[in-house]
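To the team - magnesium ion complex, inputs and output below.
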Amino acid sequence: MSEAEELGNWTRSHFSAEIPKKDGSSVTLMGWIRAIRKVGKLTFLQLADREGFVQVIFKGVSPQIQKKLDILQRESVIAVKGKVKINKTAPNGVEIIPSELKILNLAETPLPLEVVTQKTPADLPTRLNSRFMDLRKPEIAAIFRIKDMVVTAAREYWDKNKYIEIHSPKLMSAPSESGSNVFEVKYFKNTAYLAQSPQFYKQIMMAAGFDRVYEIAPIFRAEKHHTYRHVTEFTSMDFEISFISGLQDIMTEVENLIVYIYKHIQKNAKTELKILGKKITPPSTPFPRVTMTEAFKMIGEKFNDNDLSSDQEKLFSEACKKKFNHEFVFLTEFPWSTRPFYHMKKDATTTCSADLLYNGLEIATLAQREHRFKILMAQLKDKNMSPKALEYYLNSFKHGSPPHGGAGLGLDRIVMKMLGLENIREAVLFPRDPERLWP
Ligand code: ATP
Ligand code: MG
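Output:
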């Protein structure tokens, strides 16, 4: 007997969650066998697809079907034709009495991973090694369906607000941020660098007169350290807008975007949130704003133009929880010493920039950019950088760059924090880190 029959002219009539609750309806279902149970002459199959599962009950079948049932293994792919039978005690109120069965692909045993979580769940590396199997778990699939909705919501927000989506190059002739965590790649006879951000290009698009742009794309950082919040390839949601009066405009735009995403998820991800046992409520606006000087005061330490260390960040987020009872906080007025040359300066030591913290973790950096060529060149010099490699970027400031600013938001970190995941790798389909370039 064939272990991989052809589908022929069969097409799926319903996903399991869409089966009509009407006795005798004809259905054609396709999916994976999540469980097999044999009781006397009865065989119960749990047929799972991406929307849920349904019980298929074989009773008094033809010898031909019986032969197939005898060789079936869990997680094999099958197609079934049959009739609906209402059963109030069944998980979704119906079961299927089949008339035909096709084995589309028999699964090998043993399975590399159990789909139905056992008493001792597999550890993350084991799960990631067999990610295709891990993703069959409804509670894991739910994370990525919510991630899809976050992106859909962001696109929708930006489209409604007259942004233009752009696609900037990911192969660069010079690093796009600091040179310390850039990946080098062989580029014919030369060296190219993988983009660490779309920063320079979205700013060039302001000089090009596009006014409001956004990009959702992978970026790369050679982060050597193992942390719960860094991967080497992640998805950045970037935007940049022109004719701003100040950083305030960027903060408002970020707030509106986050609230829009929350409302979209609250409305559209009811099933997924239920599977994950999570509730979300759109945050109130404006989000609290704390200057760096105030932040150090709040943790009882003296501010000396430093960034918060990760320990101080923890203390600060505790203090914020008490003071504001808000999931989001803008940390503002970052010292010039900790920011890149293209951030606008507020005064000699401070920049017009902010970080957005989400339950204590940075999820975005925002800034008004320096758009005045001469000042930008002076700031570059101040950071001991050479203009040569950045000529293509700097040229765009010579011939009409409007006042502008923007933000880069980490999609994977947003999903991680929204769902209370402990490791960013849980929010990335196939994460990349110093030890993992596979699968
Ligand atoms: P961190 O200080 O946490 O390393 P960063 O300040 O270097 O972050 P930015 O250059 O401001 O990061 O990048 C914009 C956003 O991209 C960050 O706010 C964060 O949400 C996300 N991000 C940055 N680095 C990573 C990474 N290695 N993995 C996942 N997300 C990241
Ligand atoms: Mg940052």
